Amino acid sequence: MLRGMNFFGDRLEDDIREYASRLSRRMKKRGRVELLPLANCLDDLATEQSEDGIKCLGAALDTAEVVKGIPAEACRLRCQFYLAVFGDPHAAAAVASETASMAMRDFNESRGPRMLWRALAWSMLSRTLFSSRYVGTFQVPPHSLFRMLMNNEAEFESAILHARLTDELTNKEASAKKAPRDGDIEDLLEDEAETKPAPKASVVVIPSIGNATTSEGKRVLGEFQEFVQRELPLPAGSDLSIPRTQLVSEFPWVASLADDILNRLVGRGHAYVGPTILVGSPGCGKTRFARRLIEELGVPYELVPCGGLSDSAIGGTARRWSSGEPSLAIMAVRRHECAGPAIILDEIEKVGTSRQNGNVHDVLIGLLEKETSSRWFDPYVEANCDLSHLSWLMTANEVGSVSAVLKDRCRILRFPEPGPDQLPFLAPRILERLYLEAGHDPRWATPLEGFELAALASNWPGGSIRKLERLVEKLVEARERHWGRQ
Questions:
Q1: How far is CA 46 from each of CA 19, 37, 86, rounded to the nearest angstrom?
Q2: Could you give the count of Cα atoms lying within 13 Å of 231 in the half-sphere of its Cβ?
Q3: Fold for the domain defined by 215-414
Q4: How many other CB atoms are there within 10 angstroms of residue 37's CB atom?
Q5: Phi, psi of 116 (to 5 degrees)
Q6: pTM confidence score
Q7: Could you write out the DSSP letters of every residue in 171-197?
Q8: Does the pLDDT value for residue 34 go beyond 60?
Q9: How far apart are CA 17 and CA 219, in angstroms?
Q10: What one-character DSSP code corresponds to residue 312?
Q11: Beta strands per DSSP E along 137-291
Q12: pLDDT tens digits for 272-330?
C-alpha cells in the first residue's frame, strides 16, 4: 500500500473488511485469551468500517501482550495508513515518515527515487490535513485524498526532475566553454550523438492511388496528393504516470481498469491502444473515460456513435458511386495528419446486423487484425494502406449482440459502476459543470451542504451518472426557487 498498491476491490471499506476478517480468524486459531480483545475489535471492523473502529484496534494493539506469530507492527502501520486515508493528519505524518524511510532504503539498494516523490507527497498531504482539520471544518473524503496525494506526487517528481535536468544542462554548458583536449574530441562527439533526440517514428499510410489515370482516379489523386508516399508521424509515447494520475483523479472507481490498459503501453515507442471493448451499464461513464484516456495519451481521435450505423460505409465506398468516400480510418488519418489516430466507437452493440449493404462488424474484423490492417484495401483510394497503427476503443452496454469473431479480436473489459461512496466526489463536479454550462464562473457555486448530499444519497444508490446529473439539476432548481423567494 505504501508503494501504491490498490485497495482490495478498489475500495477502502472492502480492504478493511477483508483484512480484519482474515486477521481475526488467524488470532482465534491461536486460542489465547489475551488475544480476544484484539479479535473482538477486528470483528467489529469487519462489520462496520469506521475511523473510530481503526482507533480502537490501534489502542488494543498497544495494550496487548506480544504474541509470537501475530504481525503487531505491520497491523499498527496498516492502522496508520487507514487513519491517514480517513483524513487523520497525525497518521498521514506517520505514513510520510515511513515512506521516507523506505525511500532511503531504496536509494541504498539502487532501486530508484520513486518513493521519494511519494514521501514528499504524504508530507505535503499531512500539512493540508492539519490545516483542514484544525483551522477549518472541511473534511477530506478518501477519494479526494488520493487525488491530492497523486497530484502532489506528480508535482514533486516533475519539479525535482526539472531541477536535475537544469543542473545537468548548466554543467554541460560550463564544460563546453572549456577548450577540449585532443583526446576528448571523440568523447564529445559520442556525447553529442547520445543526447541528440531520436527522430519521431513515422509511417507511410497511403503508398499510392489506384487507377490514377482515370477521371475518378485523377480526382482522388487530387484529394490525397499530399499524403501519397508521405511519412506521417505516430503519436509520441509519454510518461504514463501523468495520464494515470489524471484518470484516477477523474474516475477513482476505475483505477484498476486504467492500470490494466496503461500497463500494456509500457515500453512502447508510441501511444497505441489495442482493440478494446469497455462493457458497462448505461450512464456509468465509460464513453467519457474512453475519450479522456485517449486525450491524456495525446492521441488525436474520432468519436463515432454507432446507433445510426447499419452498413459497411465505415470501411469506405467505391469511388465509382456518387456517394463514394474513403474509409473512416483513412479520413481520420487525413484529418489529423497522423498515422496512428484513435477511433472510439460508442455503443458498438447498437449497429445494424443486416448484411444487405454490408455490416459494420464484418468490416471491423479486417481493421482490427495487424496482418490485414497493415495492407487494408480502401475501396475509394483503391490501394493497400497501412492502418495497423490505429487505436480502436469501443464501448458497449452488453456484448450479446456483438459477433463472436469481433469479440475474439478484442479485449473485453468490464467497466465498473460508481458506487454511493463516489457521491461526494461526483456531485460537486456535476454542480461545477452545470454552472459552466450556464455561463457562470464555477467558483460562485455554493458547495453542496450535508443535507443536500444526504438527499442525493437517498435517491442515488450508485450506478448511472446521468441519473445523478438529473438529480443535481433538480437540486439546483430547488435552490434557485428557494433563493428567489427570499
A1: 8, 14, 17
A2: 5
A3: Rossmann fold (3.40.50)
A4: 17
A5: -65, -45
A6: 0.58
A7: HHHHHHTSPPPGGGHHHHHHHHHHHSP
A8: yes
A9: 68
A10: G
A11: 202-204, 231-233, 276-279
A12: 999 999 999 998 899 999 999 999 999 999 998 887 665 556 888 888 877 788 989 99
